[in-house]
Amino acid sequence: SVSDVQIEYSLISRGVEAEILPTCRELGIGVTAYGVLSRGLLSGHWSKEREASLAPHDFRASAPRFTGDNLERNLALVETLRAIAEAKGATVAQLAIAWVLSRGDDVVPLVGARTRERLAEALGALEVELTGDDLVRIEEAVPVEAVAGERYHAEQMAILDSERG
To answer: What pTM was estimated for this model as a whole?
Structure first.
């Protein structure tokens, strides 16, 4: 039997909320959420300058959410989150992780860190307490329909079971 599903879930990738998350809950299946910082986009450390310095083999160099106008639109969403995070005494990354933590005890965020500093920042999300009003402000700052670009190119999206209707 299945006891846990690992799937991408973040403020920017919320497709699981429609059918997958409710089905998991109905069946008592936990969710391990990966990509909670959307490959760094929700880290609060991304910039147009960083886009220009990506190595050609870096997935993000051609990912729809990280290129051109899509990146500019998504970074604007991140800046809106930054204002909410600062008001809470948190970083954007901590706010994004805390939001995933708020989704329920059956949702566990999987967070990676390349440096001790980023690990300490991620662990700081455990101290961020989000009120109902905070959650409303966060979701208004990053409405699902405002996210620019898909997670992957069309060919890749077509083969993802999680994206099939």
So the answer is: 0.86
